[in-house]
Amino acid sequence: MEMVLMKNDQYPECYVQANDNHWICYVIEYRAEEFLDYQELEHEIDGMIVVEVIQTCRICGQQDVYYPA
User: What are 16-36's pLDDT values in tens digits?
Assistant: First the structure.
């Protein structure tokens, strides 16, 4: 698969350059609360309830999933 590099002005507003040719969504990376939506889901696995939290950036739509302790 060929890697396509985008121009700086083609990235969503929430993207910042982390290092050479590597861009990240700062909203997800730094948990900028004012631009995040949260969804909590509960799953039963082997009789235990597991909580899954999905964070979504309101600007670009990128998602991150984590499981709080």
Answer: 888 777 888 999 999 999 999
- Cα–Cα dist 26/50, whole Å: 27
Other Cβ atoms closer than 10 A to 63: 13
Distances in Å between the Cα of 14 and the Cα atoms of 1, 31, 51 are 26, 12, 27
- What's at 69, amino acid-wise? A
Instruction: Please report, as a single letter, which amino acid is at residue 32.
Output: A
H helix count then E strand count, the chain: 1, 5
pTM value?
A: 0.74
